[in-house]
Amino acid sequence: MSTLTAMRRLFLIICLTFMPLLQGCGSSSDPSPMSMNSGGGCRPEDLKNGPVMKNLELAVNDNTGDTTSAKAWIAPGARHGIIFVTGIDGGFLEPADQIYTRTAESFYHQCVSSIFVTYRAPGNVPGNVKMSVADARSAIDHLKGLGINKMAIVGWSFGGAVISHTSAEVPEIATVIGFAPQGLYAEPIAQLRQSQSLLVFYSYDDENVAYTESQFLFDKAPGNIKKEAYPLSGYNHALDGTSRKIEPVFHNWLKDNLLN
Known about the structure:
37% of the residues lie in helices and 21% in strands. The protein is α/β, with parallel strands linked by helices. The chain folds into 2 domains: 3-36, no CATH class; 44-259, Rossmann fold. The chain has an 8-stranded mixed β-sheet with strand order 1-2-4-3-5-6-7-8, with helices on both faces. Helix 4 (126-145) crosses helix 5 (159-169). The longest helix has 24 residues, at 3-26. The protein starts with a helix and ends with a helix.
């Protein structure tokens, strides 16, 4: 047998022995489990069994040692979040036919985590606004700790003051949404960054907070940001019965200004 033939046979043996191993390790057409999900994060297909609402006690970072209560819908691996705050009476009261809960549940399936945080001291005085902003920031800190770095903040009535202060302080807040928001103590809305946006819903027939306060907040926001107002007629301060009209607007706004 010639030397050339022997070399060919040896080469064939090497190929048959080692090529399957090489293909299994290096072929781009057959990625390993690690390469298929190397980015980690949240996948909507993994959230079919949710959402599950959990009650939390959040530490408030204002040197008081206090905690504040919250409801949370946490999507594992989410990178976007929503913070909800209520009105002057505190607790977990929601506007627009319980629009907070429905939004949290809906956006959970789009890999968005939500926290509805309460106030330790609800009430329309400057000191209580400051405390309530700290409460909102406790929810923000919790989301940051989960790796979330882009958020929306949503407030009703007295919450207009809270979302104005909080969004001016926190650059991770991409968009601000007010439901019949008050203009009192809301002056920091003028400090919104160009990267932030504002959406306001209000009723001309609001019996509690005059619609002019919502207009004040809207007008006070910088002219170079994206902002829209959605006025309504014939509805009360809680915007009861408006959900069919405003929920599609609200959700599309979140998709455009939070998820994109």
